[in-house]
Amino acid sequence: MLAHPDDIDFGSSGTVATWTAAGTEVTYLIVTDGDAGGFDDTPRDQMGPLRRAEQEAAAKAVGVSDVRFLGYPDGRLELTLDLRRDISRVIRQVRPQRVLTSSPERFWERVAASHPDHMTVGESTLRAVYPDARNPFAFPELLAEEGLEAWTVEEVWLTASPRADHVVDVTDVLELKFAALTSHVSQVGHLDDLEEFVTGWMRETGRRLGLPEGRLGEGFHVVHTG
Fold first, then answer.
1. Is Iron found in the keyword set (predicted)?
2. Confidence of residue 79 (pLDDT cuts 50, 70, 90)
3. Is the peptide bond before 131 cis (omega within 30 degrees of 0)?
4. What is residue 204's three-state secondary structure?
5. How much is the pLDDT for 46?
6. Exposed/middle/buried for 148, CB within 10 Å: 0-12, 13-18, 19+?
7. Minimal CA–CA distance to 92: which of 124, 31, 135?
């Protein structure tokens, strides 16, 4: 559950590739269409549909077919009850054991990771996980009108967290990660050094979180919700 198309692919699509390879079913929930993104003169009314299509292609590259969008405005997310309800709805529909989202904490050493939309989605998702989705009396219309019973998510994985305490070795799925990431042509098509930059970033993550020398990692702060 992340803010923009491409967020999952920069930080976590290698991890997703390892999950789908192991038979885990994965659903993407993207809160905005990313209509404020891009680097060229693509008309704004075309950017949202374009980025949806790019995200669907990126998801397919790592074995994900269920991609959902909430359609909130890019760059203007706020922590609201409506957003919490909409995320809770998807949690109750999908009934996941694990939710991956962005950290609600600002990462001062990597401030670009702490886009306001990222932090808002992270906090909204954590509130949806606890208490909203598991509480049958929160957003009672989800049960009364839509038949969606309460559901408890067992753990949350936070990306771009200053408290990262877990690393996934993605070295062996690097090709899949970059197939996903480069699907976002409207966002990365102008970056000649994308693979070099991202590989260096993952190499440092692996080193910092204890992988063997030269291995590539994606880092997370894992929160158990029990």
1. no
2. very high
3. yes
4. helix
5. 94
6. buried
7. 135
